[in-house]
Amino acid sequence: MISLTIDGIKVEVEEGAKILDAAEKVNAHIPTLCMHEDLERSGNCGVCIVEIKGKGTERACVTPAEEGMEIITKSNELKKARKTVVELILSNHPNDCLQCIRNQNCELQELAEKMNIREYKYPQIYGSHLREDNSSPSIYLDPSYCIKCGRCVQVCQDVQHVYALEVNDRGFDVFYGPTMGRDLEDSECVKCGQCSAHCPVAAIHERVDSDKVWEALNDPQKIVVAQEAPAVRVALGEEFGLQPGENIKGKMYAALRRLGFDYVFDTNFGADLTIMEEAAEFAKILQKDPSELPLITTCCPSWVDYLEKFFSPLIPHFSSAKSPHQMVGSMVKTYWAEKMGIDKENVFLVSVMPCTAKKYEIERMEHMYSSGHKDVDVTITTREFARMLKEAGIDPTELDDEKPDSPMGEYSGAGTIFGASGGVMEAALRTGYYYVTGEELPDPNIDFVRGIEGVKEGEIEIDGKKIKIAVASGLSNVEKVLQKVYLAKQNGEESPYHFIEVMACRGGCVGGGGQPYGSTNKVREERAKGLYTEDEELKVRESHNNPYIKKLYDEFLGEPLGEKAETLLHTGYKNRKGYNDMLSEEWIKNEY
Predict the structure, then answer these.
(1) Which is nearest to 392 in space by CA: 255, 516, 250, 263?
(2) What is the mean pLDDT of residues 141-158?
């Protein structure tokens, strides 16, 4: 242990701890701007300076604590220095807080308020010479707001291993953006949105599509339908003062109706439908030719984009089942529209998602038009939904609970846990076990797939066979799993896994790129906990036992993997050439 003093208070910390860590132990607040718990500390912003007696000032977040150090965190000189740093950042930042998408939810604005900065002390030093980038269907870049904290590059490179963003140029001309000056849409970007989730200001955010929703809501010719992903219900409340993980599904349904939606369904129904198809795929391969395993889940569109760009040789192992909200889209504009006697051309379907990549997914391939029209018309993030509610003066926490509309508002516990890493796998195993054995899984709780760890592994026995499972979240963790599979195949060995779940974002959809700002591991855990609690409370916990799913197959689809199901509920993948090959022998040798 190392002993030092912080503002005269003795404290002991582990060797290797930073001054900031020592200060936190004695509740000595040191402001930061570039730091995020998901990322390695960089010290880029320079706001966290402290005084070390006899050594001058250092940045607390990256300076190691040393034996006998005497640290001062509060003095007039430090106050002035920190304030000057923030004032200089503001001098190269647009003065349009009232019009900014991050107004009242901006880390720079919050820090300036805490430092009592009430005027722009310095004139604009230099203006941004970079253009906005709205080429992506999911992510919008505006370099004029960038404060050079580096979080976006760190999360893209170190956490996701995508390397779509980098530090470009030098000196006053430095900027953070796509490599080699390309548009984001032409880069390696997989639309996960983690750059936007970690940006402290408005330099990177989701492409805003709420104007399209308002237009549809005000069109008397449109029948406007909503569906909401499971992760939304346990995060939306954060925008209105509730704690992470508080499940406000009933109030969410009510709020959507107050906005003017004609029908409110639930993507959890689509999750049950996805499981029916995906588990049927797994059972079919397991019983017919297990050597064709593993089967890899494909509910996450960011992951799909990633696999097509970097892991295309493994495409034969990917489930062809569409994601839940795309299945709901297809069913709304075929089965439901026909049942209701509504012209599907007049149906406008809005998906409320925790994800920025869903904006890309709805136009990804011709399979997303399986109804003869665009199956999902618009996707908005949880953040966009919250902004719409605030714009309309609706606080969902003040509303009485309401129920979704039938039949596509009814779901099982398996459907609701889709929002957590491991939830898709757990739901698929509950039904896959039934498909193979004809019996219910003795215990529907599969604990080893739960949690926010990057890679989770385990085994489950189905009909006398030991099924090896892997669950990965965060794309850097996905590489580790898939390269094991690839190397085994190359060497003629049995695959180390039979069934693999992948989510691009850490912790799964609860930590999605479109969720309320401030996602940390603790927040992700609490959101996931809210979903597992609902699963435990529901009477029906398996997708195949959802009576409304059974009715859909009886009345319309026929059977899982049947001809109509294949047409409406399945998709395909293609090799997107021109990107780094993460399965090349040279790459694997260098990485491992």
Answers:
(1) 255
(2) 96
Active site residue 288: no
At the top level of CATH, which class does the domain 2-74 belong to? alpha beta
Catalytic residue among 249, 251, 358, 468: 358
**Residue 299 among the catalytic residues:** yes
CA distance 202 to 199: 7
pLDDT in tens, 486-505: 899 888 899 999 999 999 99
Which one is catalytic: 45, 61, 199, 509? 509
Q: Is 591 a catalytic residue?
A: no
What region does 185 belong to: left with phi over 0, alpha with psi -120 to 50, or beta?
alpha
Are the CB atoms for 190 and 162 separated by under 8 Å?
yes
Q: Indicate the residue type of 570.
A: H
Annotation says 439 is catalytic: no
Q: Is 319 a catalytic residue?
A: yes
Peptide bond connecting 178 to the previous residue in cis, omega within 30 degrees of 0 = no
User: pLDDT grade, residue 592 (50/70/90)?
Assistant: very low
Please, are residues 37 and 46 in contact by the beta-carbon 8 Å criterion?
Answer: no
- What CATH number is given for 258-342+403-569 in this structure? 3.40.950.10
The per-residue pLDDT for range 214-252, each reduced to its tens digit, is: 999 999 999 999 999 999 999 999 999 999 999 999 999
Domain spans in the chain, listed from the N-terminal domain onward? 2-74, 258-342+403-569
pLDDT averaged over every residue in the chain? 95
- Of 277, 281, 526, 534, the catalytic one is 281
Strand partners, 318: 296
Catalytic residue among 136, 187, 196, 319: 319
